[in-house]
Amino acid sequence: MAHADIGLIGLGTMGGMLALNIADHGFTVAAVDASEGAADRLKASAGSLASSIRACASLADLVQSLTAPRSVLLLVPAGQAVDDLIGELIPLLDSGDTIIDAGNSNFRDTQRRCAAMRSDGVRFLGVGISGGAEGARFGPAMMAGGEADSWGRVAPIMTAISATYEGETCAAWLGPDGAGHFVKSVHNGIEYADMQMIAEVHAIMHDGLRIPRTQVSEIFHEWNQGPLASYLIEITAKISSTMDPETDRPILDVILDKAGQKGTGRWTLIEAQHLGANVSVIEAAVAARNMSAALPQRIRGAELFAGASGNWPEADLTSNDLEHALIAGKIICYAQGFDMLMKASEEFKWKLPLPGIAKLWRNGCIIRSGMLNDMANALESADQNNLCFAPSFANVLINSAPKLRQTVMAALQNGTPVPALSAALCYFDTLRSARTSANMIQAQRDFFGAHGFERTDRHGTFHGPWIPDDKAE
Ligand code: 3PG
Predict the structure, then answer these.
(1) Fewer Cβ atoms within 10 A, N terminus or C terminus of the chain?
(2) What is the pLDDT of residue 472?
């Protein structure tokens, strides 16, 4: 084989699938993995694509196999493994070659690596990839950060293998240094929130309203034909009717309710706090995963406090109410996510293209949905700074928020936890409060710390006529 178009290091599920995807699009790929024989196994399993894959025995072999200037894609676990690999690659590469970290790296690591690499002359891109194994094989969404011209060099391959939406690619350069990985992290935070709200509505339907699983599946399937049409609703419909072959029971009955997480949702939250962004729905979703993992504590609580009834068939909620509750929750959660992206864009001077981000999430990634196309259109309008205020979404919220309220109230009344849906409702109520409870906070701050407050009737900073404790009668 002549020199390969791109190198790929890390042949786990995502890496292996991506190598096949690259080969499938007429490019040649040199592949290597730390585990011996993995590249040969990939080539052996690649069938007609095998001639486009060069199985390399070492990093040096891989680098020598590439057309200059070289592009090397890393698909290894985030963290130290990426630094170690970069350390090994740098002496083998030349100035002008590009390393592309396509793992789930923390954007702060990506910023650091971009800065360090500048002095070596090697270029660095941080590219967030979403779509799971199937996406990696047949078209993921890609969120790139780094130098625009470095992306320009690899873009022909990356856009060719990415998903498309009505002919438009779902891969794009979003900004300098860590911008791509930052956007991927917010994508994952939204993913956590979307999943949590769906799980809460599922629990209301099945555990609360006692709707049989096959019917629950049909309802999700129906929703997937309407405004909620999305990959996550589609798989929820399928999951709801899947049986466990071992026990012949519904698979959901045998899956332990302990949610895992690799950390990206948590990173989103941490960064939201740095930015002063309210992502309360994502926060609720991360907290719910944390608490789901505290199983012994929950078992103790259920014994001590006689768990919630979990059975409320008499509640007056229709599937249409629940659909609208999810629609409202989803709009609010995405409004928070895009608001956070806007704040980050200002903070890091990235000029993130918000409509472009909504567009590239329309297909290929885990949160892909029809609604993202409407969001992209709404975000194009420069005169609104919150997705909830965009006329098309404001109108939907006016209709759907009362159903969200009805759903949350029924759940709370029956002791069923709906943290993400409740957080969405509280955000909405705060967003439409011209006056909140923060006057009391300001008074308390001034009382104990003389921090001062503004007044409603004139400009300036003022203090209250507080009576110190030692003077009070
Ligand atoms: C991923 O990026 O791998 C997933 O979309 C999110 O992973 P998690 O649920 O394990 O954090």
Answers:
(1) C
(2) 55
Q: Which residue has the tokens 């309008």?
A: 381
Is 262 a pocket residue for ligand 1 (Cβ < 6 Å)? yes
CA of 254 to the centre of ligand 1 (A): 22
Residue 259 CA to ligand 1 center (angstroms) comes to: 11
With the most atoms of ligand 1 within 8 angstroms of its CB, the residue from 262, 269, 367 to mutate is 262
pTM reported for the whole predicted model: 0.95
Q: Is 343 left (phi over 0), alpha (psi -120 to 50) or beta?
A: alpha
Q: Atom 8 in ligand 1: which residue has the minimum CA distance?
A: 261
Strand order in the sheet with 123-130: 53-55, 29-32, 6-9, 71-74, 98-101, 123-130, 141-146, 171-175
Residues 6+ apart with CB under 8 A from 164: 139, 170, 363
**Helices and strands: H and E segment counts in the chain:** 20, 12
**41 residue type, one letter:** R
Separation between Cα atoms, residue 116 and residue 168, nearest integer Å: 34
Catalytic residue among 191, 200, 271, 283: 191
Q: For the chain, which domains are there?
A: 6-177 (3.40.50.720), 185-431 (1.10.1040.10)
Q: For all residues of the chain together, what is the average pLDDT? A: 95
Q: Is 184 a catalytic residue?
A: yes
